[in-house]
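lol ok so funny story. i was supposed to be doing the assay writeup but got distracted and ended up predicting the structure for this chain instead. priorities right. anyway since i did it might as well share w the group, maybe its usefull for someone
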Amino acid sequence: MKFDVVIAGGGFAGAYCARTLSRAWGPNAGRRVGLIADQNILVFQPMLAEVAGAALSPLSVVNPLREFCGHSNVLRGKIRDIQLEEHRIVLDAGVYTSNISIEFNHLVIALGGIVDLSRVPGMPEHGLILKNVGDALNLRRTLIHRLEEANLANSPDVIRRLLTFVVVGGGYSGVETAGQILDLIADVKALYQNLRSFSSRVVLVHSGPFLLPDIGERLGRYAEEQLRARGLEVRLNSRVTAITATKAVIDNGECIETCCVVSTIGNAPHPLVTSLAKRYSLPQLKGRLVTEPTMQIKGHPNVWSIGDCAAIPVGDQPSCPPTAQYALRQGTQLAKNLERVFLGDELLPFRFTNLGQLASIGHRTAVADVLGFQFSGFLAWWFWRTVYMAKLPGVERKIQVIAAWTLDLFFRRDISLISLDPSQTLPEAHLEQGDFLFHPGDPAGSIYLIKSGTIEVHQGDIVIRKLGIGEVLAEPTWANENGWRYGAVATSPSTVVALNSKVRETLSQFTPAFRQLFQLASTGESSETSSPKP
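and the output, tada:
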């Protein structure tokens, strides 16, 4: 596939760029514009906290990209490599579709950022984040799980620990998440018969002197006052230094007994952006690609960058704030510049003045700074909902959210707990005689343990290995971009257990025996001729 414009990233910036080009080029956009995204939905992130607090359905805050972007060709997959010199992107869409080459004349990099929790010991293992819809659902499920567990616990100390929730970060996401947790617990706790005599705790830890630093001290102090009045414990000028399964340690020596920690900090550059900048010596500013005011990457007239991964100068500022209102306008403006490129017209610099900031703090209360006017309370909350309703893409989604907000005035929040865990953590595959386990060139990412039957490994017509019960089959180079170098076929009815890369890496860390077993399998040695040392 080859496109005039390939947009890498399906967030606000990339989606609005594709949508604007689609409207300009009409049905031809399907052949001219390719949007690559790792999800096939556009997530309205400002409302994720309400999904986590069970105030909104997750389907109310997402839009299918194929509907939103009109005629643009949406390609869902994970980018493996970006080759600027060859004008090519290597895309992996899944187990059966990998190493697909997408060629471009112009490339728009809108990959955003990632969450890096590694700076706080224990946070990657025990911390929860709020980056996408899956994270919001996971947090909602965890909150309800803790209530269910506490309702059955015998020890008062265990109950108090299960009813303690810690939120790290006092910015917009942290304050809105803490407010939603307060509202959820207050709304449903009376339904749990065994918890009525116990108090819950929500603790917000913030490194600054006041909450919501981006909106100003006055409104930040107001938000703190309102949240404290509803029972929130606020730790200012404090940092979480470590997390375990049962506690959070703060730098002042305080140890909070808790089984639920939510981190709203830890934003980091996207690894693809970092590697691309290093390989091609692209200028960076704090991990973001530095562009011209026209959003072109310096020295690369056919490469552009927008959104959170781009440092686009505006006015006297070296870069725009990484917020949604800037991202969607960058996407729209860049689409117009791309139109101008193909028409041979002069490019226009990006210009936009911040309209203001809004933050909901729960309990029908919010703070707002709009065009220099600051206000708070119920009026700000009503304005917050009005603005976000207007910005929410899609009439259907607007109706769903209005209905949910209306019902929220009269009914409790829904605490239905639907398990999303797979029923089988180590998937097994059954093969009949003659069935292929994999073909040469198929994606290689798992190792296989033979549970029953026999598997024959061949290269062309040559049989190179025969494996039986208890033996291991693995690819010599785990990250081999060309996939399996040979084929494997069952010579009798067989069952194999697949260990994916995450399971393999976890087991390898536990003991040298597992690590040596995988190394032996990688070199092609069977367990009959070699066995790992204990």
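The first helix runs from residue 12 to 25. The chain is about 30% helix and 30% strand.
back to the writeup now i swear
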